[in-house]
């Protein structure tokens, strides 16, 4: 690892990401303090992107991730449990990771002093997640939130997809078995937020060594809509029938339904998810 060498990785599908990457390259080279090893554009192949980043791992002291939570998730697979720091430039739809850390704006790294801070992330099997692991509703929303809706509605696309889910046919929902009942949603979070700013875990902290688990049992549409309103207000505890818990690890899902990590499908459950304290070193504004 070379401490003053930087790899810039950006989401090629996002408007303005390529331009922002070139602006950062020019800024860093002008400062004459850092050496930009490479500027990498994302491809449709996640494994190809991981290979590109890993090939530069020994040359990089910092990865700059320009995009949304999916972009940061890919970088985290390479940077976790190393001395490499990660700088997040939030240009995505949800940006829950940046929101959780208080990072705002595309040019903040150019205008503020930074500090490297170790934070907790999660792991499912051998894959890391930066915000959450979920099954049921969060996996079902993949089909209800197509790319065109994200482009058109931006951050609101998450709420629109949830509304489509609530009014849609109940028999098309994933039914996650737990004990003697059925859950429509199970999620383990390390972030305060999921789904573009929904505060499912308002007490969460990246410095605590635990995950927060939430399950939504199957209820009527009206009951689930009221529960969503409490969650949106950051008060999930006001809904008595929501199941909530905190622990270092949980078993998530069942044999028949997909598990998703930060919005990407990993595979069928059940799956153990675990908190990894201090696993990722991120650069934060010194003012934070």
Task: Reconstruct the topology from this structure.
Blueprint (H helix, E strand, L loop, with lengths): L4 E6 L6 H15 L3 E7 L4 H10 L6 E6 L1 H11 L5 E6 L5 H6 L6 H4 L2 E11 L2 E3 L2 E5 H8 L2 H7 L2 H12 L8 E3 L2 E9 L21 E7 L3 H12 L10 E5 L1 E4 L5 E4 L2 E5 L2 E15 L3
Parallel strand pairs: 1-2, 1-3, 3-4, 4-15
Antiparallel strand pairs: 5-6, 5-15, 7-9, 7-13, 8-9, 9-10, 10-11, 12-15, 13-14
Helix pairs in contact: 2-3, 6-8
Give the tags.
single chain, 288 residues, alpha+beta, Rossmann fold, Tumour Suppressor Smad4, 2 domains, 8-stranded mixed β-sheet, 7-stranded antiparallel β-sheet, globular
Report on the structure:
With 288 residues, the protein is α+β, with helices and mostly antiparallel strands. The chain folds into two domains: 125 residues, Probable inorganic polyphosphate/atp-NAD kinase, domain 1 (Rossmann fold, 3-Layer(aba) Sandwich); 144 residues, Tumour Suppressor Smad4, CATH 2.60.200.40. It is 30% helix and 33% strand. The chain has nine helices and 15 strands. Strands 1, 2, 3, 4, 5, 6, 12 and 15 form an eight-stranded mixed beta sheet that branches. Strands 7, 8, 9, 10, 11, 13 and 14 form a seven-stranded antiparallel beta sheet that branches. The chain is globular. The two termini are 27 Å apart. The mean pLDDT is 93.
């Amino acid at each position: 690892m070379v401490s003053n060498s930087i790899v810039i990785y950006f989401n090629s599908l996002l408007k303005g990401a390529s331009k922002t990457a070139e602006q950062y390259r020019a800024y860093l080279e002008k400062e004459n303090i850092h050496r930009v090893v490479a500027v990498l554009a994302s491809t449709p192949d996640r494994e190809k992107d991981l290979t590109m980043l890993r090939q530069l791992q020994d040359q990089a002291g910092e990865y700059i991730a320009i995009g949304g939570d999916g972009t940061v998730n890919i970088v985290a697979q390479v940077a976790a449990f190393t001395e490499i720091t990660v700088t997040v430039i939030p240009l995505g739809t949800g940006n829950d990771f940046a929101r959780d850390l208080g990072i705002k704006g595309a040019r903040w790294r150019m205008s503020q002093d930074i500090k490297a801070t170790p934070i907790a992330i999660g792991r499912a099997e051998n894959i890391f997640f930066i915000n959450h692991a979920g099954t049921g509703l969060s996996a079902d929303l993949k089909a209800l939130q197509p790319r065109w809706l994200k482009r058109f509605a931006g951050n609101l696309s998450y709420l629109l997809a949830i509304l489509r889910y609530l009014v849609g046919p109940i028999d098309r929902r994933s039914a996650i078995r737990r004990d003697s009942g059925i859950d429509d949603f199970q999620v383990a979070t390390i972030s305060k937020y999921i789904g573009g700013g929904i505060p499912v875990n308002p007490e969460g902290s990246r410095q605590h060594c635990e995950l927060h688990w939430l399950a939504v049992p199957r209820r009527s549409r009206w009951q689930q809509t009221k529960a969503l309103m409490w969650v949106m207000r950051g008060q999930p505890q006001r809904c008595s029938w929501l199941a909530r818990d905190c622990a270092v690890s949980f078993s998530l899902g069942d044999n028949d339904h997909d598990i998703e990590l930060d919005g990407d499908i990993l595979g069928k459950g059940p799956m153990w998810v675990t908190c990894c304290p201090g696993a990722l070193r991120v650069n934060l504004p010194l003012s934070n």
